[in-house]
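Aim 2, interim progress: modelling of the zinc ion-bound target.
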Amino acid sequence: MVEVLHVDAFEDNYIWLIRGLDDTSKVAIVDPGDEIPVYATLKKHALTPLAILCTHHHGDHTGGIDNILKHYSIPVFGPAQEHIPGISHRLKQGDPVDLHGLGLRFEVLDVPGHTRGHIAYYGHGMLFCGDTLFSAGCGRLFEGTAEQMLISLNKLSALPDDTQVYCTHEYTADNLRFALQLEPSNPDLLAYIKKIEKLRQTGLPTLPTTIGAEKTFNPFLRSAEPEVKEAAQAHCGHALRTPEEVFTEVRKWKDRF
Ligand code: ZN
Ligand code: FE
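Predicted structure of the complex, ligand included:
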């Protein structure tokens, strides 16, 4: 079982530290937007980083790379299609990521939508998906189209149900307020809202989530559900014929929510 530590950064970002299987004092850092809180966690747990994994080019996911490289000479994995200073390994769909010294191996998934070249890392029953999938939500469409994002999300929802999903923002409570507008009587959603309310009182992350759970209440994975479709139609005031049209409307609705 691989252990993952969280580092709080900025308002609501998580930087994940994946402990090695071979040596648990070694870690891979996922999306280091800020180096300062990373150093504090490394020091607290006596950890040494052996690699950096990047999902996309936004500053809140990459801003700490430069400084970390000044202290540690380690490989930086990231998307082939995006410009990120410091990247040593440029990755695309299907590429293996072998993390030497950690005993970890991930596979790369192309998940465009939030950004054009966004990638995710899948392995050891875990998914590091950056700003593509959030618990009860999905990333905003900054560079890609709704169609691209839906294809990316379908790719992620096809992963095994017990996949542990490590998103990079604590947006769950906000997302749930929106999800409730669409499916006010979804029992899985109502149960999850209760669970998250309790968890947030402790100040702990609501993540990781799982693919299986998300499929039961995340409106962005439920464009084919009649209740989601009806809510979206009522909101936009016209008929929506396909899951793509439903997804597009739901994403637009959330942008203004
Ligand atoms: Zn982003
Ligand atoms: Fe972000």
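The radius of gyration is 18 Å. Residues 1-78 form a domain with the Metallo-beta-lactamase; Chain A fold (CATH 3.60.15.10).
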